[in-house]
């Protein structure tokens, strides 16, 4: 993919007084003093909690440009994959005010192409840097298109870190067969069958729950996001079967919760929202160090996503990611 000259631009953005010492207080007075001390302690704790909540809300409202230097590596990367929309159908669409706002506040690439068609090969491209033979043109469940190729899930875990896929409407871990609002074609981990892939899939490819409760929300709220989180909404919330406005509301709930959560507040988490197809596809890159309003106009695809994620986590490049452009420097990730 050829780079355009100077492809990065930046848009303008819209102790309390000391307690008196008490002497000679009897039993009842001592109890009263103890109760007062507990009340004051509770008030301080409550105030501290409220301050923390307010601080996190402020971060969520302006998540990018909070630092001017990117860390050597981020400790957590969250990838949220949406479905089947072109850039102009989402970014700038009145039905997607949340993601459009994040694109303006943070960073986006306007010439981002899908690697193939339909969905399945794009999910494999962004997680392995390759598209196995026979995968383009089909969205069939495994065993179709299974592969032993190395992949980002194996790569992260083998490096001593953690990875999870959170898959909405999947009825059980690493479910092979599609059904209802769950589509295996949007869940790449079951297609990987190399060393330890299926064992790890059975453990770490898990039902998401919903945008308000369940495994993902629990991990966000507890500050326990893994090194790599791969987030897959169901067929409605990813905009495959439902309107852009439905997907935007889901993203506001989930991504908004991540940005207001303890991992992001710690300054060590990056979030990427990307669509699988159609070219040019919508994408937004969010991290405390990201240049607000940065726009990359050079040609990129899912291999560039993979390379950028790997560099951000301090990993080597897989497959086509080795020769793809990186967005880490342009976006200050």
- Rough shape? globular
Count of domain modules: 1
- For the termini, the CA-CA separation is 21 Å
| Estimated structural class | alpha/beta
Strand order of the largest sheet: 5-4-6-2-7-8
Low-pLDDT residue intervals, each spanning 5 or more residues: 1-5, 12-27
CATH architecture: 3-Layer(aba) Sandwich
Task: Describe this entry's structure for a reader.
With about 325 residues, the protein is an alpha/beta fold. The chain has a single domain, classed as Alkaline Phosphatase, subunit A, CATH 3.40.720.10. It is about 35% helix and about 10% strand. It is built from eleven helices and nine strands. The chain has helices at about 25-60, 85-90, 95-105, 120-130, 150-160, 195-205, 215-220, 245-260, 260-265, 300-315, 330, and strands at about 10, 75-80, 105-110, 165, 205, 230, 270-275, 285, 295. Strands 5-4-6-2-7-8 form a six-stranded mixed β-sheet, sandwiched between helices. Helix 6 (about 195-205) links the parallel strand 4 (about 165) and strand 5. Helix 1 (about 25-60) crosses helix 8 (about 245-260).
Write the SSE topology.
Elements lengths: L7 E3 L16 H35 L14 E7 L4 H4 L6 H9 L1 E3 L9 H10 L23 H7 L4 E5 L29 H8 E3 L7 H8 L5 E5 L11 H16 L2 H4 L3 E7 L7 E4 L7 E3 L5 H12 L14 H4 L2
Helix pairs in contact: 1-8, 4-10
Feature tags:
single chain; Alkaline Phosphatase, subunit A; alpha/beta
């Amino acid at each position: 993919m050829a780079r355009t000259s100077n492809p990065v631009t930046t848009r303008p953005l819209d102790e309390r007084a000391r307690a008196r010492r008490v002497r000679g207080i009897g039993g009842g007075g001592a109890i009263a003093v103890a109760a007062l001390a507990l009340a004051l302690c509770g008030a301080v704790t409550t105030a501290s909690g409220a301050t923390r909540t307010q601080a996190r809300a402020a971060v969520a409202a302006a998540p990018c440009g909070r630092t001017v230097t990117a860390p050597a590596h981020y400790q957590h990367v969250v990838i949220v994959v949406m479905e089947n929309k072109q850039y102009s159908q989402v970014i700038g669409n009145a039905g997607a005010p949340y993601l459009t706002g994040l694109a303006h506040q943070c960073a986006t690439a306007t010439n981002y192409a899908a690697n193939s068609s339909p969905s399945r090969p794009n999910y494999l491209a962004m997680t392995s840097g390759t598209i196995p033979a026979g995968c383009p043109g089909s969205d069939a469940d495994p065993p179709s298109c299974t592969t032993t190729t190395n992949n980002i899930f194996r790569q992260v875990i083998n490096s001593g870190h953690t990875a999870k896929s959170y898959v909405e409407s999947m009825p059980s871990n690493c479910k092979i067969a599609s059904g209802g609002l769950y589509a295996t074609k949007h869940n790449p981990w079951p297609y990987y069958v190399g060393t330890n892939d299926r064992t790890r899939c059975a453990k770490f490819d898990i039902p998401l729950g919903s945008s308000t409760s369940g495994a993902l929300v629990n991990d966000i709220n507890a500050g326990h996001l893994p090194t790599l989180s791969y987030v897959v909404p169901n067929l409605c919330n990813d905009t495959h079967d439902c309107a852009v406005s439905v997907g935007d509301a889901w993203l506001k709930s989930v991504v908004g919760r991540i940005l207001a959560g303890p991992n992001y507040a710690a300054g060590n988490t990056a979030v990427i929202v990307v669509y699988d197809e159609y070219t040019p596809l919508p994408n937004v890159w969010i991290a405390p160090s990201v240049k607000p309003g940065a726009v990359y106009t050079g040609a990129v695809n899912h291999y560039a996503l993979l390379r950028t994620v790997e560099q951000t986590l301090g990993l080597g490049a897989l497959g086509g990611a080795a020769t793809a452009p990186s967005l880490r420097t342009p976006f200050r990730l």
